[in-house]
Amino acid sequence: MNNYTNSYNQKGEQSSINKKKEYQETSSYLSDNDLHKSIQYFEKMNAKTAPASWRIFTKDNILLLISGKVPEKIAKKYEQVLAAMDSQ
């Protein structure tokens, strides 16, 4: 299941990440094998481009991809939110 989502700040305003048409993708996987296959796919894609096409973050069965066009500071915020999520 892939979800493309809009990001909003605490005031309900759309964040700059979407105003610039820069994207993130979040996927969840039923098996570790499927998760690792996806990670390998995106790592191979990154190896072919400079700078990287995607920043890749994982937690449990969740894969979070942040466009390489997104500033690192914003990507790190997504990483922190993912890391803070409780496992279900």
Write structural notes for this entry.
The chain has 88 residues and is of the alpha+beta class. It has one domain. Helices cover 38% and strands 22% of the residues. A hairpin with a 2-residue loop joins strand 3 and strand 4 (62-67). The longest helix is centred in the middle third of the chain and has 16 residues, at 32-47.
Q: Low-confidence parts, pLDDT < 50 over ≥5 residues?
A: 1-19
Q: How many helical elements?
A: 3
Could you describe the largest sheet, including whether it forms a barrel?
4 strands, antiparallel
How far the N terminus sits from the C terminus, by CA atoms, comes to 17 Å
| Global mean pLDDT | 78
Helix and strand composition category: alpha+beta
Radius of gyration: 13 Å
Tally of domains = 1
Helix content: 25-40%
User: In what order do the strands lie side by side in the largest sheet?
Assistant: 1-2-4-3
Q: DSSP strand (E) fraction?
A: 15-25%
Principal-axis shape equals flat
Q: Topology as H/E string?
A: EHEHEEH
